Amino acid sequence: MTIRAAKATAHPNIALAKYWGKRADGVNQPAVPSLSVTLAGMATTTTVAFDPALTEDTFLLGGAPADEVAHGRVVKLLDRVRRAAGISTRARVESGNDFPTASGLASSASGFSALALAALSAAGLDTAPTQVSDLARRISVSAARSAFGGFVELPVGSPGEGDLAAIPIAPPEHLALRVVVAVTREGPKAVGSTDGMEHTVRTSPYFPAWVASAPALCARVREAILRRDLEALGVAAEESALAMHATSIAARPGLLYWTGGTVEALEEVRRLRARGLLAYATIDAGPHVKVMTTPEDEPRVTAALAEVPGVKRTIVASPGEGARLLDRT
């Protein structure tokens, strides 16, 4: 019996133009375009081993069996790979993050991107980034962007078509950017991104306005990146984040991902700007505040955020690479 295995790593991405909401046609495609930066400094590493001795798929996350929902999503991706490869072999999956899991730091994006690459490689299929991106997106939309490094856009797909991959628009070195993550809560968030998004789509009176306005915000983010205009990027990214969260806060009942530390960190970002530092905030579906700044201002921004009440610790990241293989047997 031959065990075919591969190990891959991927980084989380931070959406600068937010994705929030899916199309209603059931193909797991976004309702709005999004644009992100893939971050070095945080990583998921995943091993997939197709083993003929197994009678079912197993999934360990951080050394422990994953919950039923996470296990089901992994099996769904593996089933797609098995159908494409013409095999029925079950797999052993082991994955770990070097940053908090399921807490609003895009561990789903890095996790499913690494899983897609490792599974495709172990099954002997095409591992081109576009293939990795499309496969990962079918399970976690934001994971499509972590297949690529640097600045990456995920457009809105065409109705009736299932294929959709992200598109890289600039390499990591294109823009001198640092992202300081202010961690405001340890442990998983109470409401996952998928559930929160579905609740917002169903009940928020602001969601149609979000769908209408998000493409223009994404275009502003793209143009600022291409011009290497960090200030314009920060302004547009902050608007996108606050607009996204406004839709969930207005849901019925309201969904609030923030903590007191989130609000305190946002206030500190405004104080930093008033003192002449370049600092702009973005927040994904979680409580942590990610602050965009320059390499020169980063030490002062990091020091200031570390003193904010409610901030547990900080992580400094910069634009990084896309998903990549570490080993294959």
From TrEMBL:
Residues 10-160 form the Diphosphomevalonate decarboxylase-like N-terminal domain. Its EC number is 4.1.1.33. GO terms for biological process: isopentenyl diphosphate biosynthetic process, mevalonate pathway. GO terms for cellular component: cytosol. GO terms for molecular function: ATP binding; diphosphomevalonate decarboxylase activity. It is an enzyme of class 4 (lyase). Keywords: ATP-binding, Lipid biosynthesis, Lipid metabolism, Lyase, Nucleotide-binding. It comes from the Bacteria. PANTHER family: DIPHOSPHOMEVALONATE DECARBOXYLASE. Belongs to the diphosphomevalonate decarboxylase family. This is diphosphomevalonate decarboxylase. It comes from Polyangium fumosum. The gene is mvaD.
